[in-house]
Specification:
Bound molecules: 5'-deoxyadenosine, iron/sulfur cluster
Low-confidence stretches: none
Strand content: 15-25%
Largest sheet: 6 strands, parallel
Structural class: alpha/beta
Helix content: 25-40%
CATH class of the largest domain: Alpha Beta
Radius of gyration: 22 Å
Length: 439
């Protein structure tokens, strides 16, 4: 039999993007080749997200769409990976018996063996355990494939915070940090493949406390050591919790030029009563003081956040406090969502805010956040920003890259400049991108 063909569809967060890449290269080492459509594939993996109900339902609609394909090609294998697999387990094969493999985020290193066993026996395979071993140590990399200039690198996984709305502590498990030496080795390998920028990933990345050469390393220490790698030009990290924003990490934003001036620091809400009910363990005032402190260290830092509207018990007055906090902080970009009750989380069983109120508040909040983002984008016109060239843009002759503030920048430039950091004078702005000319 020839090479087996693999198709992976990724939903949700950046960690899923990273995990999909790693599954792809682990299966490549096992003889699989990635293809562009499910129609060509022998194995289709849906790497799923469970964070909100809408995200979780997407997997079932996609499975519905794959049904005719499976009927026409019975030996096509269908795998559900990621957080829906972890949260729903056997329920998935009950709802959709066409699913052959269910594999949680901690068991990806077992995927090649599971696929082989399913082929041999015809029986659906399920693995949603949290094994002792580090899954990353057992996921082989395809040798020396060239990489795009910006890459993700998981340094920490799981969460111990138990915010009352969130499934992450249940789907990704307890907080675990990868040893620093492994992270450094992976970063060096990425740089040897052409990577210039890494984004360190973790559900609670600034709680990083990996084993280092002499005791435990903080995220600040890790960033400082990564910055010594020659050829690695930019470092980012996401997502952070305000309570883990330690002084050494804030100081790193002042001291380390490779650490980019962009910070995703979710606050979720601006009312102390709601923050307490969410189990966030800080007040709105404490968050605002923290932001001030960070801005002293790095005055130009671009701030981003996450917000939830209509958390159980949120009144109109509480919501106005979220709006007031946003006006005070001034965000460069942000994500905002209606509260979505998740099975098994504490807030799901509380009395719910009516859907119309959630939606109406979300619309008001998003209008304000878009206004702030547009203003930030506009403030960049006339500045010359260093842009890491990533890939071709929409128009011929155009390339697109990222500014230090994570903005997409389009400009005319030769295609062979991918991976270089070029000065670009910003000439125009839109809410989601900038245009400029090579300076
Ligand atoms: N409902 C709505 N938004 C949620 N988030 C997490 N859980 C929920 C939920 N149940 C949002 C939070 C988090 C982001 C990743 O998703 O804002 O920071
Ligand atoms: Fe979820 Fe983030 Fe809270 Fe952890 S800190 S429970 S991942 S929202």
């Amino acid at each position: 039999m020839g090479t087996r063909k693999l198709f992976i569809r990724t939903y949700g967060c950046q960690m899923n993007v990273y995990d999909s890449e790693r599954m792809g290269s682990a299966l490549a080492a096992d003889g699989y080749e990635e293809v562009a459509t499910p129609e060509e594939a022998d194995l289709v993996i849906l790497n799923t997200c469970h964070i909100r109900e809408k995200a979780a339902e997407k997997v079932y609609s996609e499975l519905g769409r794959l049904k005719p394909l499976k009927a026409a090609k019975p030996d096509l294998q269908i795998a559900v990976a990621g957080c829906v697999a972890q949260a729903e387990g056997e329920e998935i094969t009950r709802r959709q018996p066409m699913v052959d493999l269910v594999v949680g985020p901690q068991a990806y290193h077992r995927l090649p063996a599971m696929a082989a066993k399913q082929r041999a026996t015809g029986a659906a395979q399920l693995d949603t355990e949290f094994p002792e071993e580090d899954k990353f140590d057992h996921l082989p990399e395809k040798p020396k494939a060239r990489r795009a200039p910006a890459a993700f690198l998981t340094v920490q996984e799981g969460c111990d915070k138990f915010c009352a709305f969130c499934v992450v502590p249940y789907t990704r498990g307890a907080e675990v940090s990868r040893p620093a030496a492994r992270v450094l080795a992976e970063a060096r390998d990425l740089v040897s493949r052409g990577v210039r920028e890494v984004t360190l990933l973790g559900q609670n990345v600034n709680a990083y406390h990996g084993e280092g050469d002499s005791g435990t390393w903080s995220l600040a220490r890790l960033v400082t050591e990564l910055a010594r790698i020659e050829g690695l030009e930019r470092i980012r990290y996401t997502t952070s919790h305000p309570n883990d924003m330690t002084d050494d990490l804030i100081a790193a934003h002042a001291a380390e030029p490779k650490l980019m001036p962009y910070l995703h620091l979710p606050v979720q809400a601006g009312s102390d009563r709601v923050l307490k009910a969410m189990n966030r363990k800080h007040t709105a005032e404490e968050y605002i003081r923290l932001i001030e402190h960070i801005r002293v260290a790095r005055p130009d830092i671009a701030l981003s956040g996450d917000f939830i509207t209509g958390f159980p018990g949120e009144t109109e007055a509480d919501f106005e406090e979220t709006m007031a906090l946003v006006r005070e902080v001034r965000y460069a970009s942000a994500f905002s969502f209606k509260y979505s009750p998740r099975p098994g989380t504490p807030a799901a069983s509380s009395e719910q805010v009516p859907e119309e109120a959630k939606a109406e508040r979300l619309a008001r909040l998003q209008a304000l956040l878009t206004e702030q983002q547009t203003a930030f984008q506009h403030s960049c016109i006339g500045r010359t920003l260093p842009v890491l060239v990533e890939k071709p843009g929409r128009n011929p002759g155009q390339m697109v890259g990222r500014s230090p503030y994570l903005q997409a920048v389009h400009f005319d430039c030769a295609a062979d400049r991918v991976g270089e950091i070029l000065p670009v004078e910003i000439t125009a702005s839109a809410t989601n991108s900038l245009a400029g000319r090579a300076a």
